[in-house]
Each structure stands twice: as C-alpha cells, then as structure tokens.
C-alpha cells in the first residue's frame, strides 16, 4: 500500500471491502477528494462534561456514566449553546493494518462555531483513529455561539484516512512551495508548516475585515443552505485605520488570510488549529484543505483561507499581516478522481472572506 492520504477512489474501496461500515448507504457528495463526511446517527446524549474513554474502555461506558438525558435525532433536535452532547455516528470502522485516520469539523460546521470532535473506543486523543481500529465512532458536539438544529444524517465532521507518514518536512515543503506557490505572495519562512497571515486591511469599499457572532440569536439548521439572514447572526467588522483588531475571549470571529492558498492535486493540507508561538488563540476549527483547493485548473485562483478565530482567556491584539496560523501538507497516496472545485460544486472554492453556506 502506497504511503499517503487516501483519495476518493481509495475511500470507496474501503467502503466496498468493509473497512468502512455504514448503517445507512452513503449519500451523494459524502465522499470528497481526500475525506469522507461522517453522519450523525439516531441517538444523542447530553453529557455533563467532555471526555476521552481511555485505554481499553468503550466510549459507551463513559457516556452512560456522564449522560444527563438521551435525545432521539430521527425527527431533528435543537442542541443548545454552552452544552456538551455526544452522538452516535452512522459510520463505523474495521480498518486494515497500516491504515489510520484523523477527523476534523467540516468547514460549514467550524464557521458557525460548533466545536465537534470524533471519539473512538479506547481513545486517548480526540479526532484520532489508531492504526487498524475496529469499532464505532461518536461525535462530541458543543455549539458555542448559535443553537443548532441537527438530525440523523446531518454531516458535521469529516474523516481522512492515511497510511505511512506522508507529512512533508520543512525542506520538502520549501521545495514544493518554490514549485507550486502554496501561499501566494508570502515571504514568511517555512517552519513547521507554511505560515499564513490575517488580512485586516479590508475586503470591500466599506473596509469590511470580518464578522463577529451575535449572541441570543435564532437557531441554525445545519442542513439548510441559505436559510439565515447574515444580519440576524453576525456583526460586520470594518477596518479601524490602524490595521488592528482586539480579540475578546468571549467572542467568535470570522476573518480571512491575506494570502491566497494553493493545494496541488497530489497533496492535501491541514491548518494547525492552535500555535502558541504566534498567540494564545484558536485560528481554525475545520482544518482540512482538499486537493485542488485554490488550484487554478479547478477554478480556485485567489482562494483565501477563512479563519475561525477565538482567543483564549485574555484579550489579544492582532494586526494586519500578522502570522496567525500554519498549513502543513501531506502527500496523497493517489491523485483524486475529482478535485475540490467546480467539478464537485464546492462551496468555498475561489473564496475571499466568506461565511458558511447557511447564510444569505
């Protein structure tokens, strides 16, 4: 088996061989160029606290210890802000030896400030599926800013399969950047990934730099596209003339990178969510960038990285052009049959500063 991130065709082969097991057949669009969306199952539990099962312990035992009540998602249910929920996932795994996986929130999930992590039996780390894992998957869900309506089949998380150690080191990343211009216009040194900075100069004639989530809003139906008015949920932020923004630790922000980002067809990328070297704040919830993101041949020229930002504990000032995150790249085990972009009707190709697909 070639070392690398699994392509769409390889994920389909895993499904066919039983390495991925689905209680309900997959739906169109569930398999992406380098990942697969995970769907919520029928049962969900409100729990007292977030948890990891720990070695040798099934997640269900911890759920039974911590659950406050059970929720049936068959007809939909509202998940409230400030609460922690754990839901069954329709997909389970029986991975062959040499195959591991990692999970992340989907882009549309991260952009509505829903903190979602995948848990496995015996797990000692969130969003991490060990080599050869066989067992169920669970999704921890914690809405932070907006209450959300979810149901059986809702897709909040995505999973990426890999074999070997395909991550590029700094020397390999520097060579790829020189050949493919991974972050357009950037002159930042490569160290632990390609650095991206924040754009606080403004994206339109009014000087729009981003959005801050409002409190006490209506709910967001995670499965409805364009159903919510931007003004009901978001406060627009404009440039202050000083090129700076103070991040309040109680608030959630949507910002964008100053640089355009490029993921070549034979690679996949991931944003490092928290880098203490550049500041105590989370810069991204949904970190996966698929092959073809920002790729000119896939209609992605000029694609920015949208940043889902929340400061930790204390207010923090960021300035225009300041490094806020890093992109790490991994080799694909096989080029995807279809790239992220027009072929897949992708929501965020060629994006600038863009809210999630739920808003019109």
Q: What is the string of helix and strand elements?
A: EHEEHEEEEHEEEEEHEEEHEEEEEEEEE
Strand content: 35-45%
Residues in helices, as a percent range: 10-25%
How is the biggest beta sheet arranged?
10 strands, antiparallel
What do the pLDDT scores average to?
92
Number of beta strands: 24
TL;DR?
By secondary structure, the chain is mostly beta strands. It has helices at residues 8-17, 59-66, 107-110, 170-180, 230-233, and strands spanning 4-5, 20-22, 36-47, 67-72, 77-79, 84-94, 99-105, 114-120, 128-129, 134-143, 148-150, 155-163, 194-197, 208-213, 220-221, 234-238, 244-247, 253-260, 267-271, 281-282, 288-289, 304-311, 316-319, 323-331. It has five helices and 24 strands.
Could you describe the 3D structure shown?
This protein has about 350 residues and is mostly beta strands. The protein folds into two domains: about 160 residues, Deoxyuridine triphosphatase (dUTPase) (Deoxyuridine 5'-Triphosphate Nucleotidohydrolase, Chain A, Distorted Sandwich), CATH 2.70.40; about 180 residues, Distorted Sandwich (Deoxyuridine 5'-Triphosphate Nucleotidohydrolase, Chain A), CATH 2.70.40. The chain contains five helices and 24 strands. Strands 1, 2, 3, 4, 6, 7, 8, 9, 10 and 12 form a ten-stranded antiparallel beta sheet that branches. Strands 16-14-18-22-20 form a five-stranded antiparallel beta sheet. It is globular.
